[in-house]
Amino acid sequence: MKTYVLASQNKHKAKEIKQILGGDFNIITMDEAGLDNFKIIEDGKTFEENAAKKASQVFQRLKIPTIADDSGLCVDHLGGRPGIYTSRFAGENATDEMNISKLLKELEGAPINERGAEFVCAVALIENSAEDIKIFKGTCRGYIIEEKRGNNGFGYDPVFYYPEYSATLAELGDDIKNKISHRYKALKAFSDYLKMS
Ligand code: IMP
Q: Is the pLDDT at 1 greater than 90, yes or no?
C-alpha cells in the first residue's frame, strides 16, 4: 500500500482523511513522518493555491508523496465569505466557538433563502516533483441555521444543515458525513485518479 504524508496540523481533518482513504492508502501525519512543529505558510488567494502551497512546502522537506487539503465555508448572504479565511474568521487564533458566533451574528435576521452555504475542499497531490501538482475539488451545499445542533464533527458542522438528511453535519456523525462531504468528494476524485493512473 502506498504511503502519503498529509500536510496538515488539523487533527480533525487528519482523522476524516484517514477514515475516507484508510482502506486503500497509508496516510501518515507530519508528526509521524518526523516533521514536528513545522509551520506551513498559507498565503494563497484561493483554496487550490493554498492546498498546493501546503503540499509543496512539506514535499520539499520530506521528499515523499504528499497530499494537502485546504477547505472552508462560502456563505451566500456574505458574498462567499469567509472563504479562504474560514479558520481565522473571528481572528488569528479563533476557536470554532468564536468563529461560529461571528458567523451567526453576521447572519442575524437573514431569511433562510439567503442562508445557503457551501463547504469547499481542494486536495493537492505531489508524487514525484514539487513542479507537478494535481488538484482535486469537492463541494457540499447546505444552509447555516440559527443555532448549533449536534456534537460530532468539527469547525462549523453544528450550524451547517444538510437538507437531504434533515440534520446538521454535527448531528449526522462521521459515517454519513464522510460519504457526502466536500472532503469526501475531493478525496474520491483523488483516489479515482490514482487508481486510473
Ligand atoms: P484550513 O483548511 O486548515 O485553512 O481550515 C479550514 C477551516 O474550515 C477549518 O478550520 C474549519 O473551521 C472549516 N472547515 C473545513 N472543513 C470543515 C468541515 O468538514 N466541517 C466544519 N468545518 C470545516
A: no
Ligand 1 neighbours (beta carbon < 6 A): 10, 70-73, 86-87, 119, 153-157, 169, 181, 183
Candidates 20, 71, 88, 162: which one to mutate for ligand 1, based on the most atoms within 8 Å of Cβ? 71
Mean pLDDT across the chain: 95
Total domain count, the chain: 1
pTM assigned to the model: 0.95
Q: In what order do the strands lie in the sheet with 26-29?
A: 26-29, 3-6, 66-75, 116-126, 133-144, 160-162, 167-168
Q: What pLDDT sits at residue 14? A: 87
Domain interval for residue 27: 3-196
Q: What is the CATH number of the domain that holds 176?
A: 3.90.950.10
